[in-house]
Write a structure and sequence with these properties.
The chain is α+β, with helices and mostly antiparallel strands.
Length: 628
Amino acid sequence: MPDDARAPLPFQVDLRGVVDLLSRHIYSGPRVYLRELLQNGRDAVAARRSEDPAAPSGALLITPHVAGSPDGADSPFRFQDNGIGLTRDEAAELLATVGRSSKRGDLDELQRGDYLGRFGIGLLSCFMVADTITVRSRSARGGPAIEWIGHTDGTFTIRELDEQTTAARPIGSEVLLEPRLDGPLHDGGLLGHGAVLGLATSFGRYLDLDVDVVDPTTATPTRVNVEPVFRTPATTPREELLAFGEELLGTRPFDAVEIVVPGTDTRGTAFVLPSPPPPGARQASRVYLGGMLLSEQVDDLLPDWAFFVRCIVDTTGLRPTASREQLVQDDALEFTREAIGSALRRWILDLARQRPHRLQEFIGVHQLGIKAIAAHDVDLATAVVRWLPIETSAGTMTIDEHLSQAGVIRYTATRDEFRQIASVVDPASPIVNGGYVYDQEILERLPSLIEGVRVERVTVADELDNLEPPHLDDLAATTALEDRASRVLDEVECRVSVRRYRPDDLAALYVADPSVLRRLERHRAAAVAPGIWSQVVGAVDSFLAEAKPDDGDATTAARLCLNWNAALVRRLATLDDDLVFERSIQLLYVQALLAGHRPLEARDRRMLDAAMTDLIGLSVGLDDKELR
């Protein structure tokens, strides 16, 4: 061939800019160079098989770099495949023009092409770890073998090899890399044996062809491939599958669920976590594309509610992004996500039908996830709703246990309302805390899920009105006590009612409906907000007050409910000492606030400090004049 055929030719690309693009914006780091080589080798083998079914079994051989001299050039890194190979024209076109645009869309379009279209991008990733790349290849389609050499200065040479050299070369390609020896991307270590063996095992562990890494000290190849047991959970011995899950999770999984999505050729296993994940956590999935590791942190494969499993799948029908580290958000991914959700629902339904005790164990660990599904899935809710745990005034129990004790389910809409009244409701008619996530939705759907069940929402005002009033003989004393105590608590906008309830030693109960609590929260916000924001909150409160003026209804204010069964309250009704009476009422008010898990405002704290100081003064012998 003419001598000028070996003259350096420029890449049709700003190579340094492309390497920077790859390392900073496309790939997560230089370690992906080996993944790209493995992918190219696998695609080359697949291309050869598609043209020649009688071609030899696919094989990839990797010989790590050994620093035989200061610049390491004596023993470069070598990657060999027995795939379809490249002709001179293919090498010149694909290895010289790829990457001509830095737009992600263009790169992504190349990713969707055939093997040859992807080859160039993968090869350029090697410039993140090498100063020089040499490709020698012999095409299965015939023609002379070629040698292509690219440099980081943006030039390359390409030549056809003579007939003797071509005949001596096997069909396929080899890539030689000379490590980078300086600069911020000095990664010669990534081409050494330890790093290469680790990367090859991580990325190519489940490839459907032989992948061998040569130990340079013994010239012995090590096979990194193993059978992907997660692809066939139905036929894999259970103990072997759970052992694999333990390796994946770091702890033995609760169970394993088979995932099969024929529409996108996706197969794998969802491992059920043995303990609840942190609140709000989403489980990342490990995804392989045709046996090649895409990522261990794919976030969008599972439905949002499926945070109780970690999935590992292999697929050929889902599309990777340009970085080949996440999946493209398209209809295929949405279809696969829904199919995985359906598989998880079927597993839960099978537990309900065949292993109800196991279902109870699962719900005990992952009740929030199950409630999330049951709140919107009728079939699943019907199967599992009886085993869902709920908090009641009689303790935590399942819905089925609660129904066996009470014919109707009475619930509060918020945890705050539940805390206020749980201690005084009739034990024969307990209430349910519907304030937890999904609980109210599930409780309201119970009549359609379980025949004969009645559900009632209760409010603080309703329950207070249901408390037993004092006897008529005590009406005058209790009315006077209410008026006198309400005047004491005027400054904190709290009215006093007297009722009879159990337990007798609970002297006072602070109750307020949600609208009152919201108003108190606005007051608290206005007190702590700086400058103009305090005025804004105050203006909102004034507007709401004008829109719904106080009509004298006691429910427009918080209430302190005193227990006439308590000896302390009956004694207060006859107390003549105004100072002791005031301070006692104030302390009962603060005590009831704290018992109801209500935060103290500044005026509440001032009241507490004054009451405690005066009562201590009285106990040490100070008179009213000294205290006032």
